[in-house]
Amino acid sequence: MSDTLSVKAYAKINLTLDVTGVRENGYHNVKMVMQTISLCDIVSVTLKAIEAAEATESRVFVRTNLSYLPVDSRNIAYMAAVKFFEYLKRRGISFPAYDVYIRIRKYIPVGAGLAGGSTNAAAVLRALNEMTNAKLSISELMSIGIGLGADVPYCICGGTKLVKGIGEFVLPLPPLPDCYILLAKPSFSVSTPNVYAEIDKTGELIAVDTNGMIEAVKNKSVTDIGLHMKNVMEYIVSKKQPEIAHIKEILIKHGASGASMSGSGPTVYGIFHVSKRDDVYAAREELLNTYKEIFIAKPVIQ
Length: 302
Fold this sequence. Notes:
The chain has 302 residues and is of the alpha+beta class. The chain has helices at residues 76-90, 116-131, 138-146, 152-157, 192-202, 210-218, 222-228, 232-240, 243-253, 277-287; strands spanning 2-22, 28-49, 59-64, 98-105, 160-165, 169-172, 179-185, 230-231, 258-261, 268-273, 293-297. The protein is globular, with a radius of gyration of 20 Å.
């Protein structure tokens, strides 16, 4: 007998991203305002109890619609299942040995700065918690998540949040007002470790007014939110990749209140008043002349 649960794994954008220091272990402290958006993958988890009496360990199997993605321990969703059962064992929570089948249908572009892998891992943790009736708290799921990746704790919570530390501190903010979010992913890739290394080497960072962004969110002002969108990683990446600035120019030209890069990139997004639907689609048409991966999304309240 088996049981299946399918969940939406939402992408995220960084409304702000500031690097505030480096720890002794080399990890970077960050301060970010993050937002879940409607662009999502579909993650289906099936549990099948292993009937063999001698079975004590659960087994994990992953399938995706993208042939080039790893489906073993290199896949963060795979590791999320492994870490979940390891946590239950450490806590002394009894459970049968399962065959865990994870099926991921990817719509979020890979390596885009949108937490595509992290949100898949978060979806697996939430699904397993519900399906096994383990009754772990959100804090416990987040403690598992931070061992998988810096964005996973946020992805477990979703919504509009202030994220600090190395991603382990996730603080609630009022939901974003209704708006359109237009995203464009260039074809080149970005190495997050290389971006951090460049930040450490140059020490050149743009000013990020996180508190100003928080006030803009509280005031539900799409105009002010756009004005306060800043990402220190964009400053590093755009020096080598002029496409970042080019996409931003197109978004602003068509009426975006603001435009910024998400995470370590390379995806660039613009935020538009909900009344500017025609402008959103006009920007989309112009971007499609150059870029294949263009998405229109809205904020998701979680």
